[in-house]
Amino acid sequence: MASVEVERVRRLIDGLRRDRRTHPYHGRQEYYRLASDVVAACEALIESEPTAVPTLARRAVDLVTKALMYIDGSSGIVHALMAVHARACVTAPPDPKRLAGWLVKLRLDGPGWPDFELRDYADALGDKGRAELARVVEDRAKTAEPDLHGRTPFGIRVLREQLAEMSGDVDHYIAVLGEDLYAAYQYLKIVDALRNVGRAADAERWAQRGLGIGNPIDKGRLRDVYVDLLLERGAADKALGMRWRLFDQHPTQTHYNDLRRTAERTGAWPGPRDNAIGRLRDATTGQPAFADQLIGVLLDEGELDEAWQAAVDHADDLLESRWHQLIELRQPIHPQDVLEPWQRLIQRRLDASTDKHRYGKAITMLRHLRDAYRATGDETGFGAYLDRLRNQHKRKTSFIVNLDRANL
């Protein structure tokens, strides 16, 4: 017979049922609070009655997983429930075959959440559970339709990879990952596995191979690991050369920072600094969009005057957010310099007909412009500018009302 506390938690979990006809926004905060209460109650129950928790947490996961198909919000709460379930299964392992079957169903037949790692269930599954899980996965693989790219469905690939990882056989794990090397992230898994067992040379070869694929996703992370491997074996020139080539091909702030970080590790910085900044300046000549990259680097380097001059030279090529950043740095010391940029930003905002908040934003900028005029000692200049602005936009009656209300 279940204890009073188990019955209380069961009733809490029953409250997680949700009618699919309910509006996605209706009662969602209350629902998340209830789900959080269930997480806390299950966690507490692990300490007092652990054998009851795997079944209770599993039911809660199933109910919340289904509810999230019809409610607006985050899937974070179901991940928290999965964490409790995994912890409970370690404390009081359920039947390993039933656990394996449920995990496969959750991954392959669910809506795409919750995500989980089989290694969190390694002890609870044991040899028997892992064998059952592998058998079910392979049975499902035989009848599964390929995805849109002609590959084995994602869920099956994930379970195969995680089973191979749990085996502890690095070469088997690499072989499974090698069946579908679709992105740099897969190579990164292989590299990490090899590094963890001290096979640095093999890891370096796999990293270099991964950097040669066309898919750019996660290549930056793989490149960082490759540089680490090169530096660890003393190939500093090769690591720095790779950073230089990439920066020269794509002179961006990110690649500049990568170059600097690697050069600092090899003791070569600040030698390449001026050449790198010069390369960025050259890039802005042919492609003004690189001006923002140049300014970002100059700000990071503390070259505030150079950053401001670059902005003045490329005034129309910068986002409003970059101008706000630059003006905030410039106005306290050189208020005269920011008058024209503020006026240009105000005009740009008033002309932004698709922005329903444009008048409020323009008023905010006008206050900053007034402060700049005051700092220069030219308050009458602001009044004259305000009169011109009022006359220029007199047909924008809503703006004029906002302007009067602001009492500038």
Question: Mean of residue pLDDT?
Answer: 95
Largest sheet: none
> What would you report as the Rg, rounded to the nearest angstrom?
30 Å
Structural class: mainly alpha
Give the low-confidence spans: none
Give an account of the 3D structure:
With 408 residues, this protein is mostly helical. The protein has a domain at 330-408. Helix content is 70%, strand content 0%. It is built from 21 helices and no strands. It starts with a helix and ends with a helix.
In short:
The chain is mostly helical and 408 residues long.
Topology:
Elements: H1 4-14, H2 28-48, H3 53-67, H4 76-91, H5 96-109, H6 122-143, H7 154-167, H8 170-177, H9 184-196, H10 200-210, H11 219-232, H12 236-249, H13 253-266, H14 273-286, H15 291-300, H16 304-313, H17 320-330, H18 339-350, H19 358-376, H20 379-392, H21 397-406
Helix pairs in contact: 1-2, 1-3, 2-3, 2-4, 3-4, 5-6, 6-7, 7-8, 8-9, 9-10, 9-11, 10-11, 11-12, 12-13, 14-15, 15-16, 16-17, 18-19, 19-20
